[in-house]
Amino acid sequence: MRLACGAALLNLRLALEHSGVRPVIDPPSPLAPPTALAEVRSGGRTTQNPAERALYEAIPRRRNNRRPFQETPVPTADRHALVTAAQREQGRLHVLARTELDPFAELVHRAHRAQMDDERFRAEMDHWTGRERDASEGVPAAASGPLPEPQDLWVVRDFSGGRAPTRVAGKDFEREPLLTVLCSQHDSRTDDVRAGQALQRVLLTACAHGLSSSVLSQVPEVAETREELRRMLGGSLHPQAVLRFGYGSPTPETRRREPEDLLLE
Ligand SMILES: Cc1cc2nc3c(=O)[nH]c(=O)nc-3n(C[C@H](O)[C@H](O)[C@H](O)COP(=O)(O)O)c2cc1C
């Protein structure tokens, strides 16, 4: 939830800059309600630069693409742009090396099994996924990928409520996915919000560069596998999100809530 709020905060920063306001972000003041994560104030007028404007314009186009991607590798310059985007928000984006993919896939399966053994997790997952196309919240079945199959080493979750389209023969997920781990330097509430802003800057940068992306959260969500991933990456950073990039086919959009529904007087 804090990552998602951080992602929304980055959108807000970009939108304010777009309308000529320089946002100043502070930790919540002691007087703020305990659930407050940040305070946003006006720091005067500003003009958005073209690179930031490109990210602002990517906000409505960015979507999670759970479908198979092409085998075409992502060019080095684009990978570099993703790594730099994370750094801009004090995050670190670790690109998994080819040799790290198998041990990582093993972690995904372990995390997935742990979550599927948890009745409450299953109930929550069922509640939020596999929805009708025009549902105002949650993930519509149409935005899920094909059902995972045993040969898919790292695609395990079904977001379609069992309604995913049957897979076209031979159209498997890419053999060598570009998988990255977004990490924070520390592990506090503030770091989660910061990591959410890094998450969104990386995803918007990908979108602005014509890349598709998806989020795979099992490993960082389960304490044990999160710790193992942390050790796998050298032990000094905290894994927050796993992101996959590539070139995907168009995927339907997930509806947004109306901004008015989210405002409290
Ligand atoms: C912190 C975070 C974790 C997420 N983890 C997953 C995940 O594990 N699998 C997945 O398919 N989508 C994941 N998502 C993506 C959301 O399901 C998605 O953003 C939401 O359905 C809205 O769709 P959109 O991104 O296409 O707008 C995650 C999103 C956030 C912010």
TrEMBL record:
Biased composition (Basic and acidic residues): 253-265
SUPFAM superfamilies assigned to the protein according to its UniProt record, in alphabetical order: FMN-dependent nitroreductase-like
Gene3D superfamilies named among the record's database cross-references: NADH Oxidase
InterPro entries: Nitroreductase, Nitroreductase-like, Nitroreductase/BluB
GO MF annotations in UniProt: oxidoreductase activity
Region (Disordered): 22-49, 132-152, 245-265
Pfam families registered for this protein in UniProt: Nitroreductase (PF00881)
Domain Nitroreductase: 62-247
Highest taxon above the source species: Bacteria
Protein name from the UniProt record: Nitroreductase
Organism, as annotated: Saccharopolyspora terrae
